[in-house]
From TrEMBL:
Ranges that cross the membrane: 32-50, 56-74, 86-104, 110-130, 137-158, 170-190, 199-221, 241-264, 320-342, 348-366, 378-396, 408-430
Annotated stretches, region: Disordered: 436-465
Keywords: Cell membrane, Membrane, Transmembrane, Transmembrane helix, Transport
Protein name stated in the entry: Uracil-xanthine permease family protein
Location(s) in or outside the cell: Cell membrane
Biased composition, class Basic and acidic residues, residue ranges: 450-459
Protein backbone atom coordinates (compact mmCIF):
# COMPACT_ATOMS: atom_id res chain seq x y z
CA UNK A 1 0.00 0.00 0.00
CA UNK A 2 1.42 3.33 -0.98
CA UNK A 3 0.78 6.56 0.78
CA UNK A 4 0.49 9.86 -0.91
CA UNK A 5 3.00 12.30 0.53
CA UNK A 6 1.53 15.34 2.16
CA UNK A 7 1.76 18.43 0.01
CA UNK A 8 4.80 20.52 0.79
CA UNK A 9 4.20 23.67 2.74
CA UNK A 10 4.45 26.82 0.65
CA UNK A 11 7.89 28.42 0.93
CA UNK A 12 8.23 31.23 3.42
CA UNK A 13 8.98 34.58 1.85
CA UNK A 14 12.26 36.18 2.88
CA UNK A 15 10.43 39.06 4.49
CA UNK A 16 8.51 36.65 6.77
CA UNK A 17 11.47 34.41 7.64
CA UNK A 18 12.35 34.00 11.31
CA UNK A 19 15.92 34.83 12.33
CA UNK A 20 17.72 32.91 15.13
CA UNK A 21 18.33 34.93 18.28
CA UNK A 22 22.10 34.76 17.97
CA UNK A 23 21.81 36.56 14.62
CA UNK A 24 18.75 38.67 15.38
CA UNK A 25 20.31 40.69 18.21
CA UNK A 26 23.42 41.96 16.34
CA UNK A 27 21.42 42.58 13.17
CA UNK A 28 18.81 44.55 15.12
CA UNK A 29 21.53 46.52 16.93
CA UNK A 30 23.01 47.43 13.57
CA UNK A 31 19.69 48.93 12.49
CA UNK A 32 19.50 50.92 15.73
CA UNK A 33 22.97 52.34 15.16
CA UNK A 34 22.01 53.28 11.62
CA UNK A 35 19.00 55.37 12.69
CA UNK A 36 19.77 56.57 16.22
CA UNK A 37 21.15 59.91 15.00
CA UNK A 38 17.73 61.02 13.73
CA UNK A 39 15.73 60.86 16.99
CA UNK A 40 18.61 62.19 19.11
CA UNK A 41 19.39 65.16 16.88
CA UNK A 42 15.68 65.94 16.41
CA UNK A 43 15.09 66.08 20.16
CA UNK A 44 17.96 68.49 20.64
CA UNK A 45 16.70 70.71 17.84
CA UNK A 46 13.36 70.92 19.65
CA UNK A 47 14.98 71.41 23.06
CA UNK A 48 17.35 74.08 21.79
CA UNK A 49 14.65 76.00 19.94
CA UNK A 50 12.05 75.87 22.72
CA UNK A 51 14.62 76.34 25.52
CA UNK A 52 13.44 73.31 27.51
CA UNK A 53 15.15 72.33 30.75
CA UNK A 54 17.63 69.41 30.81
CA UNK A 55 15.08 67.26 32.63
CA UNK A 56 12.37 68.04 30.08
CA UNK A 57 14.82 67.32 27.26
CA UNK A 58 15.65 63.93 28.77
CA UNK A 59 11.95 63.12 29.11
CA UNK A 60 11.30 64.14 25.48
CA UNK A 61 14.19 61.97 24.27
CA UNK A 62 12.78 59.04 26.20
CA UNK A 63 9.38 59.59 24.59
CA UNK A 64 10.82 59.79 21.07
CA UNK A 65 12.91 56.64 21.46
CA UNK A 66 9.92 54.74 22.86
CA UNK A 67 7.75 55.91 19.96
CA UNK A 68 10.42 54.98 17.42
CA UNK A 69 10.55 51.51 18.94
CA UNK A 70 6.79 51.10 19.09
CA UNK A 71 6.46 52.33 15.51
CA UNK A 72 9.09 49.90 14.22
CA UNK A 73 7.31 47.04 15.99
CA UNK A 74 3.93 48.07 14.61
CA UNK A 75 5.15 48.47 11.02
CA UNK A 76 7.22 45.29 11.08
CA UNK A 77 4.71 42.96 12.74
CA UNK A 78 1.41 44.59 11.83
CA UNK A 79 -1.87 44.45 13.76
CA UNK A 80 -5.09 43.95 11.77
CA UNK A 81 -4.86 46.54 8.96
CA UNK A 82 -2.34 48.71 10.76
CA UNK A 83 1.31 48.38 9.79
CA UNK A 84 2.80 47.31 6.47
CA UNK A 85 4.46 44.10 7.75
CA UNK A 86 7.65 45.20 6.01
CA UNK A 87 11.12 45.89 7.46
CA UNK A 88 10.47 49.53 8.26
CA UNK A 89 11.72 51.67 11.12
CA UNK A 90 9.97 54.80 12.38
CA UNK A 91 11.57 58.16 13.07
CA UNK A 92 10.53 61.70 13.99
CA UNK A 93 9.85 63.50 10.73
CA UNK A 94 12.53 66.12 10.20
CA UNK A 95 10.42 68.38 8.00
CA UNK A 96 7.42 67.84 10.29
CA UNK A 97 9.57 68.80 13.28
CA UNK A 98 10.66 71.95 11.48
CA UNK A 99 7.03 72.93 10.93
CA UNK A 100 6.18 72.00 14.53
CA UNK A 101 8.89 74.38 15.75
CA UNK A 102 7.74 77.12 13.41
CA UNK A 103 4.21 76.89 14.82
CA UNK A 104 5.55 76.72 18.38
CA UNK A 105 7.61 79.86 17.91
CA UNK A 106 4.76 81.82 16.34
CA UNK A 107 1.78 80.53 18.35
CA UNK A 108 3.20 78.63 21.34
CA UNK A 109 4.06 74.96 22.00
CA UNK A 110 0.49 74.11 23.05
CA UNK A 111 -0.76 75.22 19.63
CA UNK A 112 2.00 73.18 17.97
CA UNK A 113 0.84 70.12 19.92
CA UNK A 114 -2.73 70.72 18.76
CA UNK A 115 -1.48 71.09 15.19
CA UNK A 116 0.31 67.72 15.37
CA UNK A 117 -2.88 66.07 16.65
CA UNK A 118 -4.94 67.64 13.86
CA UNK A 119 -2.41 66.63 11.18
CA UNK A 120 -2.31 63.01 12.36
CA UNK A 121 -6.12 62.90 12.45
CA UNK A 122 -6.27 64.37 8.93
CA UNK A 123 -3.93 61.67 7.64
CA UNK A 124 -6.28 59.02 9.01
CA UNK A 125 -9.34 60.76 7.60
CA UNK A 126 -8.10 61.07 3.99
CA UNK A 127 -6.98 57.46 3.58
CA UNK A 128 -10.27 56.45 1.90
CA UNK A 129 -9.45 59.14 -0.71
CA UNK A 130 -5.82 58.07 -0.99
CA UNK A 131 -5.71 57.70 -4.79
CA UNK A 132 -7.07 61.21 -5.35
CA UNK A 133 -5.06 63.03 -2.69
CA UNK A 134 -1.69 61.59 -3.68
CA UNK A 135 -2.06 63.04 -7.20
CA UNK A 136 -2.00 66.57 -5.80
CA UNK A 137 1.65 66.20 -4.80
CA UNK A 138 3.85 65.29 -7.76
CA UNK A 139 7.66 65.79 -7.50
CA UNK A 140 7.39 69.48 -8.42
CA UNK A 141 5.07 70.29 -5.52
CA UNK A 142 6.98 68.16 -3.05
CA UNK A 143 10.28 69.64 -4.19
CA UNK A 144 9.03 73.18 -3.59
CA UNK A 145 7.68 72.20 -0.16
CA UNK A 146 10.84 70.49 1.05
CA UNK A 147 13.14 73.22 -0.31
CA UNK A 148 11.15 75.91 1.48
CA UNK A 149 11.16 73.92 4.72
CA UNK A 150 14.94 73.60 4.54
CA UNK A 151 15.52 77.29 3.84
CA UNK A 152 13.12 78.42 6.58
CA UNK A 153 14.67 76.16 9.18
CA UNK A 154 18.25 77.17 8.37
CA UNK A 155 17.22 80.53 9.79
CA UNK A 156 15.85 78.83 12.90
CA UNK A 157 19.06 76.81 13.29
CA UNK A 158 21.11 79.98 13.03
CA UNK A 159 19.17 81.43 15.97
CA UNK A 160 20.28 78.48 18.10
CA UNK A 161 23.82 79.74 17.59
CA UNK A 162 23.30 83.49 17.64
CA UNK A 163 20.50 83.72 20.18
CA UNK A 164 17.08 85.33 19.67
CA UNK A 165 18.55 88.78 18.96
CA UNK A 166 20.59 87.47 16.03
CA UNK A 167 23.90 88.67 17.44
CA UNK A 168 26.03 85.66 18.26
CA UNK A 169 29.04 85.49 20.53
CA UNK A 170 32.19 84.60 18.60
CA UNK A 171 32.81 81.52 20.75
CA UNK A 172 29.31 80.16 20.06
CA UNK A 173 29.76 80.68 16.31
CA UNK A 174 33.18 79.01 16.47
CA UNK A 175 31.80 76.01 18.39
CA UNK A 176 28.99 75.61 15.86
CA UNK A 177 31.53 75.77 13.02
CA UNK A 178 33.68 73.11 14.69
CA UNK A 179 30.61 70.89 15.04
CA UNK A 180 29.81 71.28 11.34
CA UNK A 181 33.44 70.51 10.47
CA UNK A 182 33.43 67.37 12.64
CA UNK A 183 30.18 66.17 11.05
CA UNK A 184 31.51 66.68 7.53
CA UNK A 185 34.82 64.99 8.40
CA UNK A 186 33.01 61.95 9.80
CA UNK A 187 30.78 61.72 6.72
CA UNK A 188 33.68 62.00 4.27
CA UNK A 189 36.22 59.69 5.89
CA UNK A 190 34.13 57.05 7.67
CA UNK A 191 32.31 54.14 6.07
CA UNK A 192 29.45 51.77 6.85
CA UNK A 193 27.56 52.15 10.09
CA UNK A 194 30.00 54.79 11.38
CA UNK A 195 29.24 56.99 8.42
CA UNK A 196 25.55 56.54 9.13
CA UNK A 197 26.02 58.19 12.52
CA UNK A 198 28.04 61.19 11.30
CA UNK A 199 25.55 63.66 12.81
CA UNK A 200 25.84 61.94 16.17
CA UNK A 201 29.64 61.83 15.89
CA UNK A 202 29.69 65.52 15.03
CA UNK A 203 27.60 66.35 18.10
CA UNK A 204 29.88 64.26 20.32
CA UNK A 205 33.01 65.86 18.86
CA UNK A 206 31.53 69.35 19.17
CA UNK A 207 30.63 68.75 22.80
CA UNK A 208 34.11 67.41 23.58
CA UNK A 209 35.75 70.37 21.83
CA UNK A 210 33.47 72.80 23.63
CA UNK A 211 34.27 71.39 27.05
CA UNK A 212 37.99 71.02 26.28
CA UNK A 213 38.45 74.54 24.94
CA UNK A 214 36.00 76.35 27.19
CA UNK A 215 33.75 77.30 24.27
CA UNK A 216 30.82 75.45 25.87
CA UNK A 217 29.78 73.40 28.88
CA UNK A 218 28.27 69.96 29.36
CA UNK A 219 25.56 69.74 32.03
CA UNK A 220 23.60 66.45 32.10
CA UNK A 221 20.16 66.44 33.67
CA UNK A 222 19.89 65.21 37.22
CA UNK A 223 18.26 61.89 38.03
CA UNK A 224 18.77 58.15 37.66
CA UNK A 225 16.92 54.88 37.08
CA UNK A 226 14.23 54.50 34.45
CA UNK A 227 12.79 57.48 32.61
CA UNK A 228 9.14 57.83 31.72
CA UNK A 229 7.82 60.37 29.19
CA UNK A 230 5.77 63.26 30.54
CA UNK A 231 2.15 63.41 29.36
CA UNK A 232 1.33 66.73 27.63
CA UNK A 233 4.66 68.40 28.53
CA UNK A 234 3.57 71.66 26.84
CA UNK A 235 0.21 71.80 28.55
CA UNK A 236 -3.32 71.30 27.22
CA UNK A 237 -3.29 71.30 23.40
CA UNK A 238 -4.71 74.38 21.70
CA UNK A 239 -6.45 73.79 18.38
CA UNK A 240 -6.07 76.52 15.76
CA UNK A 241 -6.79 75.40 12.20
CA UNK A 242 -5.05 78.33 10.57
CA UNK A 243 -1.94 77.98 12.71
CA UNK A 244 -1.94 74.23 12.02
CA UNK A 245 -2.18 74.69 8.25
CA UNK A 246 1.55 74.05 7.56
CA UNK A 247 1.42 70.65 9.28
CA UNK A 248 -1.94 69.81 7.72
CA UNK A 249 -0.53 70.39 4.24
CA UNK A 250 2.56 68.37 5.11
CA UNK A 251 0.42 65.47 6.36
CA UNK A 252 -1.14 65.22 2.91
CA UNK A 253 2.23 65.29 1.15
CA UNK A 254 3.42 62.32 3.19
CA UNK A 255 1.02 60.07 1.25
CA UNK A 256 3.19 60.47 -1.84
CA UNK A 257 6.31 59.73 0.20
CA UNK A 258 4.77 56.69 1.84
CA UNK A 259 3.79 55.36 -1.60
CA UNK A 260 7.33 55.54 -2.92
CA UNK A 261 8.92 54.05 0.19
CA UNK A 262 6.42 51.19 0.37
CA UNK A 263 7.00 50.25 -3.27
CA UNK A 264 10.77 50.46 -2.81
CA UNK A 265 10.74 48.33 0.34
CA UNK A 266 8.44 45.72 -1.21
CA UNK A 267 10.68 45.34 -4.24
CA UNK A 268 13.79 45.08 -2.08
CA UNK A 269 12.43 42.21 0.04
CA UNK A 270 11.12 40.38 -3.02
CA UNK A 271 7.43 41.02 -2.46
CA UNK A 272 5.23 42.18 -5.34
CA UNK A 273 4.33 45.81 -4.60
CA UNK A 274 0.67 46.34 -3.71
CA UNK A 275 0.40 50.04 -2.83
CA UNK A 276 -3.41 50.02 -2.80
CA UNK A 277 -3.24 47.50 0.06
CA UNK A 278 0.00 48.37 1.85
CA UNK A 279 0.15 52.18 1.70
CA UNK A 280 -3.02 52.71 3.79
CA UNK A 281 -1.69 50.20 6.34
CA UNK A 282 1.63 52.01 6.59
CA UNK A 283 -0.10 55.40 6.79
CA UNK A 284 -2.46 54.21 9.55
CA UNK A 285 0.50 53.18 11.68
CA UNK A 286 2.19 56.52 11.02
CA UNK A 287 -0.95 58.41 12.01
CA UNK A 288 -1.63 56.41 15.18
CA UNK A 289 1.94 56.68 16.44
CA UNK A 290 1.90 60.40 15.60
CA UNK A 291 -1.34 60.88 17.56
CA UNK A 292 0.25 59.21 20.56
CA UNK A 293 3.49 61.11 20.12
CA UNK A 294 1.77 64.49 20.05
CA UNK A 295 0.40 63.76 23.52
CA UNK A 296 4.01 63.41 24.71
CA UNK A 297 5.40 66.52 23.02
CA UNK A 298 6.54 65.29 19.60
CA UNK A 299 5.60 66.25 16.07
CA UNK A 300 4.60 63.74 13.40
CA UNK A 301 6.39 60.38 13.38
CA UNK A 302 7.11 58.93 9.96
CA UNK A 303 8.02 55.52 8.62
CA UNK A 304 11.41 55.42 6.96
CA UNK A 305 13.15 52.96 4.67
CA UNK A 306 16.65 54.41 5.04
CA UNK A 307 17.69 51.23 6.86
CA UNK A 308 16.93 49.34 3.68
CA UNK A 309 20.58 49.84 2.72
CA UNK A 310 21.60 47.60 5.61
CA UNK A 311 19.21 44.92 4.40
CA UNK A 312 20.80 45.04 0.97
CA UNK A 313 24.32 44.82 2.38
CA UNK A 314 23.57 41.92 4.76
CA UNK A 315 21.11 40.08 2.50
CA UNK A 316 18.72 39.77 5.47
CA UNK A 317 15.22 40.86 4.44
CA UNK A 318 13.26 39.65 7.45
CA UNK A 319 10.86 42.09 9.06
CA UNK A 320 11.62 40.46 12.40
CA UNK A 321 15.03 42.13 12.38
CA UNK A 322 13.50 45.61 12.37
CA UNK A 323 11.00 44.39 14.98
CA UNK A 324 14.02 43.46 17.12
CA UNK A 325 15.41 46.96 16.53
CA UNK A 326 12.10 48.33 17.78
CA UNK A 327 12.38 46.31 20.98
CA UNK A 328 15.92 47.61 21.54
CA UNK A 329 14.73 51.19 21.04
CA UNK A 330 12.03 50.72 23.66
CA UNK A 331 14.62 49.52 26.17
CA UNK A 332 16.91 52.41 25.25
CA UNK A 333 14.08 54.88 25.74
CA UNK A 334 13.56 53.64 29.29
CA UNK A 335 17.24 53.98 30.19
CA UNK A 336 17.38 57.33 31.98
CA UNK A 337 21.21 57.62 32.16
CA UNK A 338 21.40 57.75 28.37
CA UNK A 339 18.72 60.38 27.84
CA UNK A 340 19.83 62.50 30.79
CA UNK A 341 23.45 62.52 29.69
CA UNK A 342 22.55 63.52 26.15
CA UNK A 343 20.42 66.38 27.49
CA UNK A 344 23.60 68.25 28.50
CA UNK A 345 24.86 68.95 24.97
CA UNK A 346 25.71 72.69 24.48
CA UNK A 347 23.19 74.73 22.50
CA UNK A 348 25.76 75.92 19.95
CA UNK A 349 26.58 72.29 19.16
CA UNK A 350 22.91 71.59 18.56
CA UNK A 351 22.75 74.64 16.31
CA UNK A 352 25.76 73.48 14.29
CA UNK A 353 24.22 70.06 13.77
CA UNK A 354 20.92 71.69 12.85
CA UNK A 355 22.59 73.74 10.11
CA UNK A 356 23.83 70.52 8.50
CA UNK A 357 20.48 68.80 8.93
CA UNK A 358 18.37 71.56 7.39
CA UNK A 359 20.84 72.24 4.61
CA UNK A 360 20.42 68.58 3.64
CA UNK A 361 16.64 69.08 3.64
CA UNK A 362 16.99 72.03 1.27
CA UNK A 363 19.17 69.99 -1.09
CA UNK A 364 16.59 67.19 -0.99
CA UNK A 365 14.05 69.67 -2.30
CA UNK A 366 16.38 70.51 -5.19
CA UNK A 367 16.76 66.79 -5.96
CA UNK A 368 12.97 66.37 -6.03
CA UNK A 369 12.64 69.32 -8.40
CA UNK A 370 15.13 67.64 -10.73
CA UNK A 371 12.60 64.81 -11.18
CA UNK A 372 9.98 67.31 -12.36
CA UNK A 373 9.68 68.65 -15.90
CA UNK A 374 11.34 72.06 -15.68
CA UNK A 375 12.12 72.35 -19.39
CA UNK A 376 11.47 75.61 -21.16
CA UNK A 377 8.74 74.06 -23.33
CA UNK A 378 6.41 73.30 -20.42
CA UNK A 379 4.95 75.28 -17.55
CA UNK A 380 6.82 73.43 -14.80
CA UNK A 381 9.60 76.02 -14.56
CA UNK A 382 7.08 78.88 -14.30
CA UNK A 383 5.10 77.00 -11.65
CA UNK A 384 8.24 76.30 -9.60
CA UNK A 385 9.44 79.90 -9.95
CA UNK A 386 6.15 81.43 -8.80
CA UNK A 387 5.74 78.91 -5.96
CA UNK A 388 9.25 79.56 -4.67
CA UNK A 389 8.65 83.30 -4.90
CA UNK A 390 5.46 83.00 -2.86
CA UNK A 391 7.32 80.86 -0.31
CA UNK A 392 10.46 82.99 -0.04
CA UNK A 393 8.74 86.38 0.19
CA UNK A 394 7.68 86.02 3.86
CA UNK A 395 11.19 84.84 4.73
CA UNK A 396 12.94 87.72 2.95
CA UNK A 397 10.38 90.36 3.92
CA UNK A 398 8.75 89.27 7.23
CA UNK A 399 6.54 92.40 7.47
CA UNK A 400 5.17 92.14 3.94
CA UNK A 401 1.72 91.02 5.10
CA UNK A 402 1.63 92.97 8.36
CA UNK A 403 -1.41 94.99 7.29
CA UNK A 404 -3.45 91.96 6.22
CA UNK A 405 -6.17 90.27 8.36
CA UNK A 406 -4.99 87.64 10.82
CA UNK A 407 -6.13 84.65 8.76
CA UNK A 408 -4.34 85.98 5.68
CA UNK A 409 -1.13 86.61 7.65
CA UNK A 410 -1.22 83.03 8.90
CA UNK A 411 -1.52 81.56 5.39
CA UNK A 412 0.58 84.00 3.35
CA UNK A 413 3.10 84.60 6.14
CA UNK A 414 4.09 80.92 6.25
CA UNK A 415 6.51 80.34 3.41
CA UNK A 416 5.86 76.62 3.37
CA UNK A 417 2.09 76.96 3.16
CA UNK A 418 2.13 79.81 0.65
CA UNK A 419 4.63 78.09 -1.62
CA UNK A 420 2.97 74.67 -1.45
CA UNK A 421 -0.54 75.97 -2.09
CA UNK A 422 0.75 78.05 -5.01
CA UNK A 423 2.45 74.98 -6.49
CA UNK A 424 -0.64 72.79 -6.05
CA UNK A 425 -3.03 75.38 -7.54
CA UNK A 426 -0.81 76.24 -10.51
CA UNK A 427 -0.10 72.58 -11.28
CA UNK A 428 -3.82 71.76 -11.26
CA UNK A 429 -4.84 74.90 -13.17
CA UNK A 430 -2.24 74.70 -15.91
CA UNK A 431 -2.76 70.97 -16.25
CA UNK A 432 -6.51 71.48 -16.67
CA UNK A 433 -5.92 74.11 -19.32
CA UNK A 434 -3.84 71.60 -21.23
CA UNK A 435 -0.68 73.67 -21.25
CA UNK A 436 1.03 71.89 -18.39
CA UNK A 437 2.59 68.49 -18.17
CA UNK A 438 -0.77 66.78 -17.74
CA UNK A 439 -2.49 65.42 -14.68
CA UNK A 440 0.19 64.59 -12.15
CA UNK A 441 0.44 61.04 -10.99
CA UNK A 442 2.30 59.35 -8.15
CA UNK A 443 6.04 59.42 -8.90
CA UNK A 444 7.49 56.24 -10.31
CA UNK A 445 10.74 56.80 -8.44
CA UNK A 446 10.29 56.76 -4.68
CA UNK A 447 10.53 60.30 -3.33
CA UNK A 448 13.09 60.99 -0.64
CA UNK A 449 11.70 60.49 2.81
CA UNK A 450 11.58 63.44 5.16
CA UNK A 451 12.14 61.36 8.21
CA UNK A 452 15.93 61.39 8.66
CA UNK A 453 18.35 64.09 9.75
CA UNK A 454 21.54 62.47 8.56
CA UNK A 455 22.93 61.75 5.08
CA UNK A 456 22.40 58.27 3.67
CA UNK A 457 25.82 56.85 4.29
CA UNK A 458 25.20 53.42 2.86
CA UNK A 459 24.37 54.84 -0.53
CA UNK A 460 26.65 57.88 -0.36
CA UNK A 461 23.75 60.25 -1.10
CA UNK A 462 22.05 62.89 1.00
CA UNK A 463 19.10 61.49 2.82
CA UNK A 464 16.10 63.06 4.43
CA UNK A 465 15.52 64.51 7.80
Amino acid sequence: MTTTPAPAAPPVEAVDARVPWRRLVPLAAQHVLAMIAAPVSTVFLVAGTLKTSPGATASLLSAVLLLCGAGALLQSLGVWRIGGRLPFVMLPGGAATALFLQIAQEHGPATATGAALLAAALLLAVLPLYARVVRLFPPLVMGVTVLLIGVAMIRVAARLVTGPDGTGEPRAVLLAALTVAATVTAYVFLRGVWRQTSVLIGMAAGTALGVGTGLGSFAPAAGSGFALPVFLPFGTPRFDLLAALPLLVFALTTLAEITGQTVLNSETVGRKPAPERDVPRVARADALVSLTGALFGTSLMVTSAENIGIGRLTGVRSRFVTAGAGALLVLLGLAAPVSRALAGIPEAVVGGSALVVYAVIAVMGVEMLRRADLSGTGTGSLTAALALTAGLLPLLSPDLYAGFPGWARTILGSGVVAGTLTAVLLTALLGRLGRGSGTPSPPADPPARTGRDAPDRAGGRPSTV
